[in-house]
Amino acid sequence: RLQKWVLREISNFEYLMQLNTIAGRTYNDLSQYPVFPWILRDYVSETLDLTNPAVFRDLSKPIGVANERHARDVKENFEDPTGTVDKFHYGTHYSNAAGVMHYLIRTEPFTTLHIQLQSGRFDCSDRQFHSVPAAWQARMENPVDVKELIPEFFYFPEFLENQNGFDLGCLQLSNEKVGDVVLPRWARSREDFIHQHRKALESEYVSAHLHEWIDLIFGYKQRGPAAVEALNVFY
User: What stretch or stretches form a coiled coil here (predicted)?
Assistant: First the structure.
């Protein structure tokens, strides 16, 4: 499989799905759901220029330090002297059941599962997945939010639409009603977002750097000294 990928006989998407499967990740288990990387950092331009390396996230760093400014805090957190638990950089995880429901809140059965998790109602609107640019902004501003993506971001436009008309409330600051997911400016429609996002995943830049992210999630930087050095230790 690795050979096929290196020779570009299979796509980046296919290779990531195979790695997820080998790692025991499956659509049938929300706590071990397939995990995909955030690959872009430009959600504000009118057009997405995939020939420009600056539009891409640095795939060699965990999402918690995608913003350089967080690296110092994350390092300091690791020095926790209490000694009661093993040291870690992040108290939450890049992939968990709540995160999957967060992204798929508009799609059943995830809507019902989300409501059950929140004791019978929707979570407060500001905490919901309401905008792709805002979700990236949260990664930039909040080192505690370390959710990576799920495969649906690369093939399933329907999850971005509130097709069932669920009442997801209003955002506190703008009083704006939460409905369909707000898309980046460069996306003309949900289908266009998925199409361009998938194109970004298969781009030259990502093909050259994807192995760095794979090392963090599936490879030798998951634990031990390499994980500590890469700021990649999870609770």
Answer: none
Residues 64, 85: Cα–Cα separation, whole Å: 20
Q: Is residue 95 part of a domain?
A: yes
Identity of the residue numbered 71:
A
Q: Crossing angle, helix 190-201 and helix 12-22, to 10 degrees? A: 80
- Looking at per-residue pLDDT, the higher value among 44 and 68 belongs to 44
CA dihedral over 186, 190, 195, 199, signed as positive or negative? positive
Tokens of 62: 């965990």
Q: Please write the tens of the pLDDT for every residue from 106-161.
A: 999 999 999 998 889 888 889 999 999 999 999 999 878 899 999 999 999 999 99
Residue 145 located in a structural domain:
yes
Per residue in 57-108, pLDDT tens? Answer: 999 999 998 888 888 888 887 766 566 677 888 888 899 999 999 999 999 9
d(CA 159, CA 172) in angstroms, rounded, equals 23
CA distance 177 to 154: 26
pTM of this prediction? Answer: 0.93
Q: Residue 224: inside a domain, yes or no?
A: yes
Report how many domains make up the chain: 1
**DSSP letter at 197?**
H
- Confidence label for 3 from pLDDT (cuts 50, 70 and 90): confident
CB 147 within 8 A of CB 63: yes
DSSP state of 94: S
3-state secondary structure of 217: helix
State which residues form the domain around 210: 1-230
The domain that holds 84 is classified in CATH as 1.10.1540.10
